[in-house]
């Protein structure tokens, strides 16, 4: 497939990706698990560059779920070291390319060193506006919704609002990064066809796309194939096809 997107194609404003298959990629090659995660970091660089080149405004990558703490201790330590290394080595490149970095999730469980580097990276890139890269780390969609519900309950307790006044929009202000628009295209690699607790609230009307490729193999052409598939879909949001067509 050509690495170009057809001129008539609709490019998603926000792409969210579950980066699945690093371990299986490594196992297939008789390599240690961490080698798969390092290869996955190369795929991240490629996908970020592709999104920037094609004017995707937001890219969210599911890097570490709240359930991933249950993985073997040595793998978790390796992932934390890789995350820290990426923050140290990649942020300057993001900044040079005018990309803003944000981290979504419960950061309190990370080491103080990792938290400090996250804060430094977010502050350094805060005014960049070519694209926003969101890394979901120690994140879970159920946690996100429960956290928002707890904050709404606190507002009711403080008398800021009556419970019956809590609307969708009011609730959504407490969802992770509420100023980031919902994903238009939601991709999962690795051949699995489930959403695995990722952006459950935000993805209510996202277009889902599943790839059999392991994440390290998901490079530019694979991403452009997903975008091309997205471009052929009609997003109806509960309306009929005729209603959508009449509005276009």
Give a quick rundown of the structure.
By secondary structure, the chain is an alpha/beta fold. The chain has helices spanning 22-28, 33-53, 73-96, 112-124, 141-157, 168-172, 220-231, 241-247; strands spanning 14-18, 58-65, 99-104, 131-139, 185-188, 207-210. It is 43% helix and 15% strand.
Parts with pLDDT < 50 across at least 5 consecutive residues = none
Structural class: alpha/beta
Strand arrangement in the largest pleated sheet = 3-4-2-1-5-6
Number of helices: 8
Distance between the termini: 29 Å
Percent helix range: 40-55%
Percent of residues in beta strands: 5-15%
Shape: globular
Biggest sheet, open or closed, and with what strands and sense? 6 strands, parallel
How many runs of DSSP E, i.e. beta strands? 6
Order of helices and strands: EHHEHEHEHHEEHH
Structural summary, described in words:
α1 (22-28) packs across α2 (33-53). This protein is an alpha/beta fold and 248 residues long. A six-stranded parallel beta sheet has the order 3-4-2-1-5-6, sandwiched between helices. The protein starts with 13 loop residues before the first strand and ends with a helix. The chain has helices spanning 22-28, 33-53, 73-96, 112-124, 141-157, 168-172, 220-231, 241-247, and strands spanning 14-18, 58-65, 99-104, 131-139, 185-188, 207-210.
Strand and helix layout:
Blueprint: E1 14-18, H1 22-28, H2 33-53, E2 58-65, H3 73-96, E3 99-104, H4 112-124, E4 131-139, H5 141-157, H6 168-172, E5 185-188, E6 207-210, H7 220-231, H8 241-247
Parallel strand pairs: 1-2, 1-5, 2-4, 3-4, 5-6
Helix pairs in contact: 1-2, 2-3, 3-4
């Amino acid at each position: 497939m050509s690495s170009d997107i057809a001129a008539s194609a609709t490019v998603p404003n926000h792409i969210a990706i579950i980066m699945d298959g690093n371990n299986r990629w490594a196992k297939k090659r008789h390599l240690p698990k961490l080698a798969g995660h390092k290869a996955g970091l190369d795929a991240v660089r490629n996908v970020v560059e592709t999104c920037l080149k094609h004017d995707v405004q937001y890219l969210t990558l599911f890097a570490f779920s709240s359930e991933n703490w249950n993985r073997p201790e040595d793998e978790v330590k390796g992932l934390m070291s890789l995350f820290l290394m990426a923050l140290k080595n990649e942020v300057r490149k993001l900044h040079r390319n005018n990309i803003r970095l944000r981290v979504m999730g419960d950061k309190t469980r990370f080491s103080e060193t990792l938290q400090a580097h996250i804060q430094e990276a977010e502050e350094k890139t805060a005014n960049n506006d070519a694209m926003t890269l969101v890394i979901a780390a120690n994140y879970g969609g159920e946690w996100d919704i429960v956290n928002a519900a707890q904050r709404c309950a606190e507002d009711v307790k403080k008398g800021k609002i009556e419970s019956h006044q809590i609307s969708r929009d009011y609730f959504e202000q407490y969802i992770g990064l509420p100023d980031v628009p919902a994903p238009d295209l939601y991709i999962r690699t690795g051949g699995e066809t489930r959403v695995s607790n990722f952006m459950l609230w935000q993805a209510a009307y996202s277009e889902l796309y599943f790839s059999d490729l392991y994440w390290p193999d998901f490079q530019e052409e694979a991403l452009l194939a997903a975008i091309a598939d997205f471009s052929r879909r009609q997003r109806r949001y509960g309306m009929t096809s005729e209603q959508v067509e009449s509005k276009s």
